[in-house]
């Protein structure tokens, strides 16, 4: 309501600004000639001041004076003075059109551009309104404000940490879990939560840091399903699909039938099965023989074999560069092997190759790498 | 009241339309009421724009993230000052500032234009209204700062950290006051062409506006250069970057306009120059707006993918420049020839000045646009950097700067070059002395430094000679000369100060370009290094938490020869958390007119840190000179000859002119 009153008031003010001078009766304006004369008189006075100060010579001053005099003579014939009386009817028509145009045009344009039904949302007001009217964002924000004032409120961090994760703000979730553990001590739930947040922050990869958190969680509670699940995922990510599947099967056996993790584990197992099947058929990735061979090798030999596989993948991508997944695997492989420069080179080659193909594959690859902490120039 | 602000902006657009049409018709048919409507429309339009701007500022201060613009460019944890300045630290907000200043100048004409003939004022306001209408439409259709978000996000994306500095509070407003101020000169030129009356009186009316815009633009450019100097952390003061050139071109053309208008005012000559320069200067301002606002500079391809804004401004540019030039071509014959003059005369000197400044403008224009054109046509990306400008712009400036002290000493109509040269003999001797001293004692290798510093001294002493001659020093006694000096018109001081400031800036630029020293070394805490006769000790890195950033502060102690600590220098590397963007904060110690500039690099593995140290002799003269130039302009502006009175309305009733 207040908005509409304001809008009406502004419209009235603008219309009046146009209307008032049009409605007034005034016709006495000096003509252009008088204004010119004023300037030239002023110039003459200035000339005399300069001459009196000796800034210009006598002869020069006389010449200048004559020149200004000629200008005055030239305008003496003069133009007519401006007058407000003539053409009154024409003025009325134009005036009416202009005065009408102000409200009509402005309301019309605002109707198209404006959003009159959206209220202001100053942050302070959003923070202090009744919590039951607040959105989740606003509640989180209030909790943050509270924690900024009382950073040693461990319970606050503890509540906020999983909410951050659900809101897809994993980095903040990591901080919150760490704060909660610093203040309230570690539990299996907090450690595994931290691990999950770290995984999310790394774009779904179980990093070494995350794995350590899960291990610590298992020290508190040997049966913690989240930790066991992610540790198995870590094996799958390293290509140890069979071991991962075994771990998941054991987890499914140990958990009660109604555990929410049963579905997740089943889905993971199914996917692992598909992947194993796919590996048997197609060239990319380690073949079953490769993996079996690998298990027989010692540490050095295994590293050599992995390097060989990565080199093969690299070579294949040179021949057939339009393969987003291939590039993603190559970049990650190099990162896992600790060869950051090669990873960066691969990323740049990949972006160049995929960029040439068009579409947003290059962007996807870039984002993928960014999640692993790798930035292309 | 966000939506009320939005509505006020729409109203301002409609009022600009009224302002563009009614006074124009009024001046055409001689109707005083229609012309008067232009005044009140201009005032109301300014008021509405100010309301819109205030509402946007309030939204920034209150962190109202339901505005897309606030969400994209602000953050609730940002210090209050940057919430204010953040209003114009982005495309939409800066365009709103642009029109705020544009309508502000229109309102000034409406308020203080009583000394102008009614038709001239009406036409000026009408042209100003047209420019305003075009830009309001641009804002409303392509860059609306009042676009809303629903639901509103809870936190914003923060302002670019480089902009989180006091510089943002000063630089853009000053620059825009200059840029947009020249729109008034443009409007005056168009109004004069519409009326077909262009004479000495016109030049006097337009002069204060030209001066005002020039003062602001000078300040804006100098402030921008100083900001880049201390904020970007690599110690340069001018990069020949397209954005800088975009503001430099109107300055060059505006400087020529300023001088040209003097001739027109005094002698009614150089009319074509003056009108064309008025059009050119504002056209270059518009071009600058196009370059900076269309995104064409970031990448021609980025521009090609979203050309809406760029094409819109380009259309505005074409219509206004094309229209102005067409009008000029149509009316050019109507320009009555002005006073005659000899080649060697004040007028002749100012024509020379115009020629050099216009050529310099053209040089910068080519250097700025050629790479863009080439990229658009062939896709090749080339970079025209400092070497191009130093090889073209530099040599162009040298003869001009040599000629500057002669100008004010030449008489109107017919000057005596030999007499002027005789008067400048002291300035010449001083310049020669400095050249020799520099060549023999300071830097024996650099001819550039010697001649350049000599040139700067020549300008400074030349400006002082001008004042001394006007005071009659040497002709009359010292006491009399002092009295005469005090009695000089302010414009005389204005000229001398502006030229003196130019000399100081030249001294600063040449000195830094030729005599600066740079060290890049790795320092560990406790280590010292010698710089320009001082000793600099690195005391270590200290972590520090700012309002919305974290930083590592490198603390240095600057010591004299005898080991006494003179001052502490703090140089830091910041990380702005919201955007995860690092910045470098340079540490600067001022010694006299020179500065020691310390910038932190990356830490090394063995606990040291890479430190870049510059010794910049007389660097502050660059900006002191600009301030002196501005002071000269301001003195000139306050001269009483610019306060032409308005004629009193006729006492007797106007003789009615028969209706047609």
Characteristic terms for this protein:
heterodimer; A: 377 residues; mainly alpha; Serine Threonine Protein Phosphatase 5, Tetratricopeptide repeat; 18 helices; B: 660 residues; alpha+beta; 4 domains; 5-stranded antiparallel β-sheet; disordered C terminus
Radius of gyration of chain B: 27 Å
How far apart are the first and last residues' alpha carbons of chain B, in Å?
51 Å
Largest sheet of chain B: 5 strands, antiparallel
Describe the sheet with the most strands of chain A: none
How many β-strand runs of chain B?
Answer: 9
Q: CATH fold name of the domain at 135-281 in chain A, please?
A: Serine Threonine Protein Phosphatase 5, Tetratricopeptide repeat
**Average pLDDT figure of chain A:** 79
Q: Do you know the CATH architecture of the domain at 135-281 in chain A?
A: Alpha Horseshoe
- Overall form of chain A: elongated
Classify the oligomer: heterodimer
Sequence of secondary-structure elements of chain A? HHHHHHHHHHHHHHHHHH
* Full CATH superfamily name of the domain at 135-281 in chain A: Tetratricopeptide repeat domain
Taking pLDDT < 50 over at least 5 consecutive residues as the criterion, the unreliable ranges of chain A are 79-84
The coarse silhouette of chain B is globular
Helix content of chain A: over 70%
For the largest beta sheet of chain B, what order do the strands appear in spatially?
2-3-4-5-6
What's the N-to-C terminus distance of chain A? 52 Å
- Number of DSSP strand runs of chain A: 0
Please report which band the strand proportion of chain B falls in: under 5%, 5-15%, 15-25%, 25-35%, 35-45% or over 45%. 5-15%
Task: Work out the radius of gyration of chain A.
Answer: 40 Å
């Amino acid at each position: 309501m207040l908005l509409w009153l304001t809008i009406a008031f502004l419209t009235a003010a603008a219309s009046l600004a146009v209307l008032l001078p049009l409605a007034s009766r005034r016709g006495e304006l000096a003509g252009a000639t008088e204004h010119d004369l004023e300037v030239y008189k002023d110039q003459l006075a200035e000339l005399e001041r300069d001459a009196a100060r000796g800034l210009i010579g006598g002869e020069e001053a006389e010449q200048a004076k004559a020149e200004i005099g000629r200008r005055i003579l030239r305008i003496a014939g003069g133009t007519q003075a401006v007058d407000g009386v003539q053409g009154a009817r024409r003025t009325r028509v134009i005036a009416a059109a202009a005065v009408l145009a102000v409200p009509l045009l402005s309301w019309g344009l605002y109707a198209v551009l404006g959003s009159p039904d959206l209220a202001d949302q100053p942050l302070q007001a959003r923070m202090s309104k009744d919590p039951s009217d607040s959105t989740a964002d606003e509640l989180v924000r209030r909790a943050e404000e509270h924690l900024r004032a009382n950073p040693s409120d461990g319970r606050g961090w503890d509540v906020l940490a999983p909410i951050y994760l659900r809101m897809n703000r994993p980095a903040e979730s990591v901080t919150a879990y760490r704060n909660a553990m610093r203040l309230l001590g570690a539990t299996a739930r907090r450690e595994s939560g931290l691990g999950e947040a770290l995984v999310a922050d790394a774009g779904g990869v179980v990093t070494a840091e995350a794995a350590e958190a899960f291990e610590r969680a298992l020290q508190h509670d040997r049966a913690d399903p989240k930790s066991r699940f992610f540790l198995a995922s870590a094996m799958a990510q390293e290509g140890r699909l069979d071991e991962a599947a075994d771990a998941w099967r054991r987890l499914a056996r140990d958990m009660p039938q109604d555990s929410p993790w049963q579905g997740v584990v089943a889905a993971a197992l199914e996917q692992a099965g598909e992947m194993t099947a796919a590996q048997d058929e197609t060239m990319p990735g380690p073949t079953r023989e490769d993996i079996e061979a690998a298990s027989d090798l010692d540490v050095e030999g295994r590293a050599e074999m992995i390097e060989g596989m990565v080199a093969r993948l690299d070579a294949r991508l040179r021949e057939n560069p339009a393969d987003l997944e291939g590039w993603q695997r190559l970049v990650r492989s190099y990162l896992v092997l600790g060869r950051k420069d090669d990873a960066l080179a691969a990323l740049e080659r990949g972006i160049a190759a995929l960029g040439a193909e068009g579409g947003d594959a290059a962007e996807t690859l870039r984002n993928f790498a960014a999640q692993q902490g790798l930035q292309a120039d | 009241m966000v939506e009320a602000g939005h509505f006020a902006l729409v109203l301002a657009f409609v009022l600009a339309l009224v302002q563009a049409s009614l006074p124009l018709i009024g001046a055409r048919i001689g109707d005083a009421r229609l012309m008067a409507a232009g005044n009140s429309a201009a005032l109301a339009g300014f008021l509405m724009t100010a309301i819109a701007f205030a509402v946007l500022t309030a939204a920034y201060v209150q962190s109202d993230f339901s505005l897309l613009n606030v969400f994209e460019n602000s953050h609730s944890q940002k210090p209050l000052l940057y919430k204010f300045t953040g209003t114009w630290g982005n495309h939409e907000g800066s365009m709103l500032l642009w029109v705020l200043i544009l309508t502000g100048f229109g309102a000034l004409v409406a308020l203080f234009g009583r000394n102008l003939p009614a038709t001239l004022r009406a036409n000026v306001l009408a042209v100003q209204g047209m420019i305003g209408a075009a830009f309001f439409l641009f804002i409303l259709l392509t860059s609306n700062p009042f676009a809303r978000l629903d639901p509103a996000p809870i936190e914003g994306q923060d302002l670019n950290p480089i902009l989180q500095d006091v510089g943002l509070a000063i630089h853009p407003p000053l620059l825009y006051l200059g840029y947009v101020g020249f729109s008034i000169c443009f409007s005056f030129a168009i109004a004069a062409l519409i009326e077909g009356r262009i004479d000495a009186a016109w030049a006097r009316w337009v002069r204060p506006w030209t001066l005002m815009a020039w003062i602001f633009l000078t300040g804006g450019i100098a402030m921008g250069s100083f900001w880049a100097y201390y904020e970007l952390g690599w110690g340069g003061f001018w990069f020949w970057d397209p954005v800088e050139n975009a503001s430099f071109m109107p300055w060059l053309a505006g400087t020529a306009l300023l001088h040209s208008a003097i001739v027109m005012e005094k002698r009614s000559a150089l009319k074509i120059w003056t009108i064309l320069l008025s059009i050119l200067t504002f056209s270059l301002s518009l071009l600058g707006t196009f370059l900076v606002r269309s995104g064409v500079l970031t990448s021609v391809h980025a521009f090609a993918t979203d050309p809406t804004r760029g094409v819109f401004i380009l259309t505005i540019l074409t219509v206004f420049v094309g229209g102005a030039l067409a009008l000029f071509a149509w009316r050019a014959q109507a320009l009555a020839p002005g006073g005659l003059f000899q080649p060697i005369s004040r007028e002749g000197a100012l024509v020379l000045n115009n020629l050099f400044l216009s050529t310099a403008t053209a040089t910068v224009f080519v250097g700025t646009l050629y790479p863009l054109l080439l990229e658009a046509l062939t896709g090749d990306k080339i970079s025209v950097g400092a070497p191009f400008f130093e090889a073209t712009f530099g040599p162009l400036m040298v003869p001009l700067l040599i000629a500057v002290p002669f100008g004010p000493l030449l008489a109107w109509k017919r000057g005596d070059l030999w007499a002027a040269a005789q008067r400048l003999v002291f300035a010449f001797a001083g310049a020669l002395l400095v050249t020799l001293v520099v060549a023999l004692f300071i830097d024996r290798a650099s001819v550039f430094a010697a001649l350049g510093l000599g040139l700067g001294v020549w300008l400074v002493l030349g400006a002082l000679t001008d004042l001394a001659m006007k005071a009659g020093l040497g002709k009359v006694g010292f006491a009399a000369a002092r009295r005469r000096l005090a009695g000089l018109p302010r414009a005389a001081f204005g000229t001398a100060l502006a030229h003196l400031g130019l000399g100081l800036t030249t001294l600063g630029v040449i000195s830094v370009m030729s005599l600066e020293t740079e060290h890049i070394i790795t320092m560990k805490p406790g280590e010292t290094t010698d710089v320009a006769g001082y000793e600099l000790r690195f005391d270590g890195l200290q972590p520090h938490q700012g309002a919305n950033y974290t930083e590592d502060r490198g603390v240095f102690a600057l010591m004299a020869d005898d080991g006494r600590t003179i001052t502490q220098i703090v140089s830091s590397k910041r990380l702005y958390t919201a955007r995860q963007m690092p910045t470098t904060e340079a540490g600067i110690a001022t010694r006299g007119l020179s500065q020691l500039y310390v910038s932190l690099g990356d830490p090394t593995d063995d606990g040291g840190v890479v430190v870049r140290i510059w010794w910049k002799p007389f660097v502050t003269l660059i900006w002191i000179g600009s301030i002196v130039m501005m002071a000269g302009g301001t003195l000139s502006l306050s001269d009483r000859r610019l306060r032409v009175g308005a004629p009193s309305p006729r006492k007797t009733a106007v003789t009615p002119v028969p209706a047609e």
